[in-house]
Design a protein that fits this description.
With 302 residues, the chain is an alpha/beta fold. The chain is built from 10 helices and 15 strands. Helix content is 39%, strand content 25%. Helix 1 (3-16) packs across helix 4 (60-84).
Protein backbone atom coordinates (compact mmCIF):
# COMPACT_ATOMS: atom_id res chain seq x y z
CA UNK A 1 0.00 0.00 0.00
CA UNK A 2 1.19 3.50 -0.86
CA UNK A 3 0.85 4.98 2.64
CA UNK A 4 1.30 8.60 1.56
CA UNK A 5 -1.33 8.28 -1.16
CA UNK A 6 -3.71 6.59 1.29
CA UNK A 7 -3.21 9.44 3.76
CA UNK A 8 -3.96 11.97 1.02
CA UNK A 9 -7.15 10.10 0.05
CA UNK A 10 -8.23 9.95 3.70
CA UNK A 11 -7.72 13.71 4.13
CA UNK A 12 -9.72 14.48 0.98
CA UNK A 13 -12.59 12.22 2.13
CA UNK A 14 -12.71 14.06 5.45
CA UNK A 15 -12.61 17.47 3.75
CA UNK A 16 -15.23 16.63 1.13
CA UNK A 17 -17.40 14.47 3.42
CA UNK A 18 -18.11 12.04 0.62
CA UNK A 19 -16.46 9.00 -0.95
CA UNK A 20 -18.15 9.64 -4.29
CA UNK A 21 -17.03 13.30 -4.41
CA UNK A 22 -13.40 12.29 -3.91
CA UNK A 23 -13.77 9.53 -6.48
CA UNK A 24 -14.96 12.08 -9.05
CA UNK A 25 -12.18 14.46 -8.07
CA UNK A 26 -9.51 11.76 -8.50
CA UNK A 27 -11.22 10.31 -11.57
CA UNK A 28 -11.66 6.88 -10.05
CA UNK A 29 -14.50 4.82 -8.57
CA UNK A 30 -16.13 4.97 -5.14
CA UNK A 31 -15.26 1.29 -4.43
CA UNK A 32 -11.61 2.12 -5.10
CA UNK A 33 -11.68 4.94 -2.55
CA UNK A 34 -13.36 2.64 -0.01
CA UNK A 35 -10.75 -0.03 -0.65
CA UNK A 36 -7.89 2.43 -0.04
CA UNK A 37 -9.38 3.53 3.27
CA UNK A 38 -10.11 -0.03 4.43
CA UNK A 39 -6.50 -0.95 3.70
CA UNK A 40 -5.30 2.07 5.67
CA UNK A 41 -7.51 1.17 8.64
CA UNK A 42 -6.22 -2.41 8.51
CA UNK A 43 -2.65 -1.15 8.47
CA UNK A 44 -3.34 1.12 11.45
CA UNK A 45 -5.37 -1.46 13.34
CA UNK A 46 -8.48 0.63 13.99
CA UNK A 47 -11.38 2.57 12.51
CA UNK A 48 -10.82 6.08 11.17
CA UNK A 49 -14.31 6.83 9.93
CA UNK A 50 -17.65 5.85 11.42
CA UNK A 51 -19.82 5.20 8.39
CA UNK A 52 -23.60 5.61 8.35
CA UNK A 53 -26.19 5.76 5.60
CA UNK A 54 -26.39 9.56 5.79
CA UNK A 55 -23.01 10.95 6.72
CA UNK A 56 -19.39 10.27 7.54
CA UNK A 57 -17.95 11.13 10.94
CA UNK A 58 -14.47 10.66 12.34
CA UNK A 59 -13.70 8.44 15.28
CA UNK A 60 -11.57 10.00 18.03
CA UNK A 61 -8.56 8.17 16.62
CA UNK A 62 -9.54 9.32 13.12
CA UNK A 63 -9.66 12.95 14.21
CA UNK A 64 -6.15 12.76 15.68
CA UNK A 65 -4.85 10.93 12.62
CA UNK A 66 -6.46 13.48 10.29
CA UNK A 67 -4.65 16.37 12.04
CA UNK A 68 -1.33 14.52 11.83
CA UNK A 69 -1.88 13.62 8.17
CA UNK A 70 -2.50 17.21 7.22
CA UNK A 71 0.77 18.28 8.79
CA UNK A 72 2.69 15.44 7.14
CA UNK A 73 1.22 16.09 3.70
CA UNK A 74 1.90 19.82 4.02
CA UNK A 75 5.52 19.09 4.93
CA UNK A 76 5.94 16.73 1.97
CA UNK A 77 4.33 19.27 -0.35
CA UNK A 78 6.62 22.03 0.91
CA UNK A 79 9.70 19.82 0.46
CA UNK A 80 8.74 18.98 -3.12
CA UNK A 81 8.02 22.60 -3.90
CA UNK A 82 11.40 23.64 -2.50
CA UNK A 83 13.12 21.07 -4.73
CA UNK A 84 11.08 21.92 -7.83
CA UNK A 85 11.01 25.70 -7.30
CA UNK A 86 11.35 27.54 -10.57
CA UNK A 87 10.52 24.58 -12.78
CA UNK A 88 7.09 23.38 -11.68
CA UNK A 89 4.81 22.72 -14.64
CA UNK A 90 1.52 24.60 -14.89
CA UNK A 91 -0.72 21.56 -15.31
CA UNK A 92 -3.40 19.50 -13.61
CA UNK A 93 -6.89 20.03 -12.20
CA UNK A 94 -7.79 23.52 -11.00
CA UNK A 95 -11.01 23.91 -9.02
CA UNK A 96 -12.13 27.55 -8.89
CA UNK A 97 -14.95 29.13 -6.90
CA UNK A 98 -16.78 32.40 -7.43
CA UNK A 99 -20.11 34.16 -7.07
CA UNK A 100 -22.47 33.38 -9.95
CA UNK A 101 -22.44 36.75 -11.70
CA UNK A 102 -18.71 37.47 -11.35
CA UNK A 103 -17.86 33.91 -12.34
CA UNK A 104 -20.06 33.98 -15.42
CA UNK A 105 -19.19 37.47 -16.62
CA UNK A 106 -15.58 37.92 -15.50
CA UNK A 107 -14.05 34.46 -15.06
CA UNK A 108 -15.73 32.14 -17.56
CA UNK A 109 -15.20 34.64 -20.38
CA UNK A 110 -11.44 34.61 -19.70
CA UNK A 111 -10.97 30.84 -19.48
CA UNK A 112 -10.36 30.34 -23.23
CA UNK A 113 -7.42 32.75 -23.12
CA UNK A 114 -5.97 31.15 -19.99
CA UNK A 115 -6.34 27.58 -21.30
CA UNK A 116 -4.84 28.57 -24.63
CA UNK A 117 -1.77 29.71 -22.70
CA UNK A 118 -1.78 26.71 -20.31
CA UNK A 119 -3.32 23.79 -22.25
CA UNK A 120 -2.33 21.18 -19.63
CA UNK A 121 -4.69 22.65 -17.01
CA UNK A 122 -8.23 21.30 -16.52
CA UNK A 123 -10.70 23.82 -15.04
CA UNK A 124 -13.63 23.05 -12.74
CA UNK A 125 -15.51 26.32 -12.15
CA UNK A 126 -17.93 26.18 -9.20
CA UNK A 127 -20.36 29.11 -8.88
CA UNK A 128 -22.37 29.99 -5.79
CA UNK A 129 -23.72 33.19 -4.29
CA UNK A 130 -22.93 31.95 -0.80
CA UNK A 131 -19.41 32.17 0.64
CA UNK A 132 -17.93 28.84 -0.37
CA UNK A 133 -16.17 26.53 2.07
CA UNK A 134 -12.81 26.17 0.34
CA UNK A 135 -11.72 23.04 2.18
CA UNK A 136 -15.12 21.35 2.31
CA UNK A 137 -15.76 21.94 -1.40
CA UNK A 138 -12.22 21.09 -2.46
CA UNK A 139 -11.53 24.49 -4.01
CA UNK A 140 -7.99 25.52 -4.91
CA UNK A 141 -8.91 29.20 -5.09
CA UNK A 142 -12.05 31.31 -4.91
CA UNK A 143 -12.72 34.91 -5.83
CA UNK A 144 -14.54 37.14 -3.35
CA UNK A 145 -15.78 40.70 -3.66
CA UNK A 146 -15.91 42.87 -0.55
CA UNK A 147 -14.04 42.93 2.72
CA UNK A 148 -12.95 39.53 4.02
CA UNK A 149 -14.13 38.27 7.40
CA UNK A 150 -12.09 35.05 7.62
CA UNK A 151 -8.50 35.85 8.62
CA UNK A 152 -7.56 32.15 8.47
CA UNK A 153 -7.28 32.21 4.69
CA UNK A 154 -4.53 33.22 2.29
CA UNK A 155 -5.83 36.22 0.37
CA UNK A 156 -4.34 38.30 -2.43
CA UNK A 157 -6.02 41.49 -3.56
CA UNK A 158 -6.17 41.35 -7.36
CA UNK A 159 -8.47 44.19 -8.25
CA UNK A 160 -11.21 46.57 -7.31
CA UNK A 161 -14.89 46.67 -8.14
CA UNK A 162 -16.02 50.21 -8.78
CA UNK A 163 -19.73 50.67 -8.29
CA UNK A 164 -22.35 52.77 -9.98
CA UNK A 165 -25.83 53.91 -8.99
CA UNK A 166 -28.34 53.24 -11.76
CA UNK A 167 -32.03 53.19 -12.57
CA UNK A 168 -34.11 52.51 -15.66
CA UNK A 169 -35.50 55.50 -17.56
CA UNK A 170 -39.03 54.26 -16.79
CA UNK A 171 -38.37 54.38 -13.03
CA UNK A 172 -36.90 57.90 -13.17
CA UNK A 173 -39.78 59.17 -15.32
CA UNK A 174 -42.26 57.94 -12.74
CA UNK A 175 -40.41 58.75 -9.50
CA UNK A 176 -37.96 61.50 -10.38
CA UNK A 177 -34.16 61.50 -10.12
CA UNK A 178 -32.26 61.87 -6.84
CA UNK A 179 -29.37 64.34 -6.91
CA UNK A 180 -27.81 63.55 -3.53
CA UNK A 181 -27.37 60.35 -1.49
CA UNK A 182 -29.77 61.70 1.14
CA UNK A 183 -32.57 61.74 -1.45
CA UNK A 184 -32.23 57.96 -1.90
CA UNK A 185 -34.13 57.48 1.37
CA UNK A 186 -37.26 58.50 -0.51
CA UNK A 187 -36.76 55.99 -3.32
CA UNK A 188 -37.23 52.26 -3.83
CA UNK A 189 -33.67 50.93 -3.52
CA UNK A 190 -32.87 47.31 -4.40
CA UNK A 191 -30.56 45.50 -2.00
CA UNK A 192 -27.88 42.95 -2.81
CA UNK A 193 -28.13 41.18 0.54
CA UNK A 194 -24.81 39.32 0.76
CA UNK A 195 -22.75 42.40 1.60
CA UNK A 196 -22.22 43.30 5.24
CA UNK A 197 -23.31 46.86 4.44
CA UNK A 198 -26.27 45.83 2.31
CA UNK A 199 -28.63 48.66 3.39
CA UNK A 200 -25.95 51.31 4.03
CA UNK A 201 -24.81 52.97 0.83
CA UNK A 202 -21.66 55.11 1.15
CA UNK A 203 -20.44 57.86 -1.18
CA UNK A 204 -17.73 60.50 -1.15
CA UNK A 205 -17.62 64.01 -2.57
CA UNK A 206 -14.96 66.68 -2.05
CA UNK A 207 -13.36 64.63 0.70
CA UNK A 208 -16.59 64.24 2.65
CA UNK A 209 -18.30 60.90 3.27
CA UNK A 210 -22.05 60.61 2.73
CA UNK A 211 -23.96 57.59 4.03
CA UNK A 212 -27.63 56.76 3.64
CA UNK A 213 -29.77 53.93 4.97
CA UNK A 214 -31.81 52.73 2.04
CA UNK A 215 -35.01 50.72 1.90
CA UNK A 216 -36.96 48.98 -0.82
CA UNK A 217 -39.50 46.29 -1.56
CA UNK A 218 -37.13 43.77 -3.17
CA UNK A 219 -33.70 42.27 -2.56
CA UNK A 220 -31.65 39.33 -3.80
CA UNK A 221 -28.44 37.40 -3.20
CA UNK A 222 -27.73 37.38 -6.95
CA UNK A 223 -26.40 40.42 -8.82
CA UNK A 224 -27.99 39.48 -12.13
CA UNK A 225 -31.40 39.20 -10.46
CA UNK A 226 -30.89 42.76 -9.18
CA UNK A 227 -30.02 43.82 -12.74
CA UNK A 228 -33.26 42.36 -14.08
CA UNK A 229 -35.25 44.24 -11.42
CA UNK A 230 -33.55 47.49 -12.41
CA UNK A 231 -34.18 46.90 -16.11
CA UNK A 232 -37.82 46.24 -15.27
CA UNK A 233 -38.12 49.69 -13.69
CA UNK A 234 -38.57 48.43 -10.14
CA UNK A 235 -36.01 50.64 -8.42
CA UNK A 236 -32.49 51.99 -7.98
CA UNK A 237 -29.38 49.85 -7.53
CA UNK A 238 -25.84 50.41 -6.33
CA UNK A 239 -24.00 47.70 -8.25
CA UNK A 240 -20.64 46.82 -9.82
CA UNK A 241 -19.85 48.78 -12.97
CA UNK A 242 -19.15 45.54 -14.83
CA UNK A 243 -22.74 44.42 -14.27
CA UNK A 244 -24.26 47.45 -16.01
CA UNK A 245 -21.53 48.76 -18.35
CA UNK A 246 -23.26 47.58 -21.54
CA UNK A 247 -26.68 48.70 -20.28
CA UNK A 248 -25.29 52.19 -19.64
CA UNK A 249 -23.69 52.30 -23.09
CA UNK A 250 -26.93 51.54 -24.94
CA UNK A 251 -29.19 53.55 -22.62
CA UNK A 252 -31.09 50.73 -20.92
CA UNK A 253 -30.18 52.31 -17.58
CA UNK A 254 -29.11 55.80 -16.55
CA UNK A 255 -26.23 56.51 -14.14
CA UNK A 256 -27.29 58.82 -11.31
CA UNK A 257 -25.42 60.61 -8.50
CA UNK A 258 -22.38 60.93 -10.77
CA UNK A 259 -21.11 63.88 -8.76
CA UNK A 260 -20.54 61.40 -5.91
CA UNK A 261 -18.07 58.52 -5.84
CA UNK A 262 -19.62 55.31 -4.56
CA UNK A 263 -17.55 53.20 -2.18
CA UNK A 264 -15.66 50.57 -4.18
CA UNK A 265 -15.11 46.96 -3.12
CA UNK A 266 -11.87 44.93 -3.20
CA UNK A 267 -11.58 41.72 -5.22
CA UNK A 268 -9.55 38.97 -3.52
CA UNK A 269 -8.26 35.62 -4.68
CA UNK A 270 -8.52 33.39 -1.62
CA UNK A 271 -6.87 30.01 -0.94
CA UNK A 272 -6.91 27.61 2.03
CA UNK A 273 -4.24 28.45 4.58
CA UNK A 274 -3.06 24.85 4.95
CA UNK A 275 -2.52 24.22 1.25
CA UNK A 276 0.49 25.36 -0.72
CA UNK A 277 -0.39 27.45 -3.73
CA UNK A 278 0.47 25.35 -6.77
CA UNK A 279 1.95 26.69 -9.99
CA UNK A 280 -1.44 26.44 -11.71
CA UNK A 281 -3.17 28.44 -8.96
CA UNK A 282 -0.49 31.13 -9.06
CA UNK A 283 -0.64 31.25 -12.86
CA UNK A 284 -4.42 31.67 -12.86
CA UNK A 285 -4.44 34.32 -10.14
CA UNK A 286 -1.70 36.23 -11.98
CA UNK A 287 -3.69 35.93 -15.21
CA UNK A 288 -6.88 37.24 -13.60
CA UNK A 289 -5.05 40.05 -11.84
CA UNK A 290 -3.58 41.31 -15.12
CA UNK A 291 -6.90 40.92 -16.94
CA UNK A 292 -8.89 42.82 -14.32
CA UNK A 293 -6.33 45.60 -14.19
CA UNK A 294 -6.94 46.46 -17.84
CA UNK A 295 -10.63 45.47 -18.17
CA UNK A 296 -12.60 48.51 -19.41
CA UNK A 297 -15.82 47.21 -17.85
CA UNK A 298 -14.27 47.51 -14.39
CA UNK A 299 -13.27 51.15 -14.78
CA UNK A 300 -15.41 53.92 -13.27
CA UNK A 301 -18.03 55.38 -15.61
CA UNK A 302 -17.77 59.16 -15.90
Amino acid sequence: MDKLNAMAVFVRVVERGSFSAVARELQTSQPTISKVLRALETELGGKLIARSTRQLSLTDEGQRYYSECRQILAAVDAAEHSFQSGRETVAGNLRIGSSVSFGRLQIATRLPGFLNTYPQVQIDLQLSDQNQDLVGEGLDVTFRIGELNDSGLIARRIGETHRITVAAPSYLEQHGQPYSPAELSGHNCLQFNLLNSQNLWAYEKDGQRHEVRIKGNAQSNNSEAIREMVLGGLGISLSPVWLFSEDVRVGRVIPILQDYTAQSLPIHAVSPANRRQSARVKAFVDYMSQALETAPELKPIR
